[in-house]
Amino acid sequence: MVGNLPNGQDQMSHQQDHHLPDDATHHGARPTMRCVEYAGAGGPEVIQIVERPIPTPGPGEVLVKVAAAGLNRADVLQRQGHYPPPEGASVIPGLEVSGTVEEIGAGVDGWDFGAPVCALLAGGGYAEYVTVPAGQLAPVPDGVSVEDAAALPEVAATCWSNLMIRAEVQEGDWVLVHGGTGGIGSFALQLLAAVGTKPLATAGGAAKVELSRTLGAVEAFDHREEDFVARVKEVTGGHGADVILDVMGGSYLAQNAKALAQGGRLVVIGLQGGQKGELPIGLLMGKGAWVTGSTLRSQSVRQKAEIMRQVVDRVWPLVASGAIRPQVDRTFTLAEAAAAHEHLETSERTGKVLLVP
Question: Residue ranges of the Enoyl reductase (ER) domain (predicted)?
Answer without folding.
Answer: 42-355
